[in-house]
Predict the 3D structure of the following.
Amino acid sequence: MKENKLQDSASLRDFFRSTTVFRHLSEAELNGLPLHSVPDTYKRGAVIYQEGSRISGFYVVFQGVIKIYKTGNDGKDQIIRFAKPGDIMGFRSTITGELACTSTRAIEPAQIVFVPGEQVTRLVKTNGDFAMDLLQIACSELREANDYITDIAQKTVRERLAEVLLQLKRTFDWDAEQYLKINLTREELANIVGTTTESVIRLLSEFKQQGLVNIQGRRIQILKAEKLRLLADINY
Amino acid sequence: MKENKLQDSASLRDFFRSTTVFRHLSEAELNGLPLHSVPDTYKRGAVIYQEGSRISGFYVVFQGVIKIYKTGNDGKDQIIRFAKPGDIMGFRSTITGELACTSTRAIEPAQIVFVPGEQVTRLVKTNGDFAMDLLQIACSELREANDYITDIAQKTVRERLAEVLLQLKRTFDWDAEQYLKINLTREELANIVGTTTESVIRLLSEFKQQGLVNIQGRRIQILKAEKLRLLADINY
DNA sequence: CGGGAGATTGACTGATCTCAACCCGGGTGG
DNA sequence: CCACCCGGGTTGAGATCAGTCAATCTCCCG
């Protein structure tokens, strides 16, 4: 799984400095991090860690996209969120000492740096700004989770799919032709929305009929974001 | 809304020390808190703060029970969680500086102490243990939120109601006869489960038929917790 | 060319929501 | 003292959204 010389320590240092929660560390503190390690690499579909496993540190995403999900006891996955470069995974379990409550799996080839939990907790206790940044991340996830709960509880599948498409556009960006830069199976889409593969397919083709989106296999083009927004917000 | 001499500062100090996130403060730090204030009191139904308002500190629940909820744009409420004595509310907004994403309303007569945000952020930055405790609270809420998302997305209303009843029992305790010590309208129950009042009523009477619970108006008696657990977990 | 995974479509089912009527108990005002 | 009212609770009938099941299709790969 390891590849050599993918990263030299200079670029890892830059990365930590510029785009992660570790950005406000002092030089000395930064030197305590595993800047010289080679990030673990994962292919699409590879599991980083599983629900129920013990997590002993932060997984910092350096490259790629990870899905973070829970598996219901009927075996159906619910995708909670995605992690992109600069995001951290597993911090909840690291902080509380509980077992992981989610599984994580690469959906685009990924490189991940592991930061041991003791280093993190030491930083929380000694660097107030770091603690604050971490708190902000947790709180912002919390808001998203609360919104999600209300949406799933109150909105129809159609509304949620529209909303998810817009969210994907915001999260993963799009190319010159408005194609979303993210590759998801219909099943994965269903697992975000909280519905079945078949329903996603039917609704996507409905949206396509209405000219709201265009679909080329897994490539999704958002044509009328404003209409989608209406569809997502307003009950009829 | 204010009553005088409800609390002397000694008992507030004890309270902060024994049951709140401020329990690990030094004497000096504790003295910075509003120990001499009289908690604001709220009757059942009174609003503490509304979604969209600016929150500038922690609301520490001293007495009573509060529901924390979001209102969907069709006007239906989704109850996210409850706050009991010792719990804090509004910390998410205080930390991130965003507007409140939930409303809070007393469902049992409540007394609440307000702690200004600057004091809290100062503590986060200067007291590592406090930062850690706060992080743990956020992370633990995060886990609950993730579980909730998966449940609502995957389980039937029947399963969710069974689960909510068990959860209420855990959260609010029960008296000698197994009656839940919490007074909720059918509508409020529905707003936890994420369904309609009518569905809650039908399912409650179904549970009653099956001898799983007993219902006396708003008083709910859990008779067969184990059966409810089965009902809540297993898909059929 | 055969196999398999993912995507699609159709028919059917049923859980849950909606709407509307009705009940019940407590409080109020004439 | 009683009629009325009102909020919450209950019940029934009907509508429908979305899930299930099964068949088929389309690639892509070995």
Confidence is low (pLDDT under 50) at residues 1-5 of chain B.
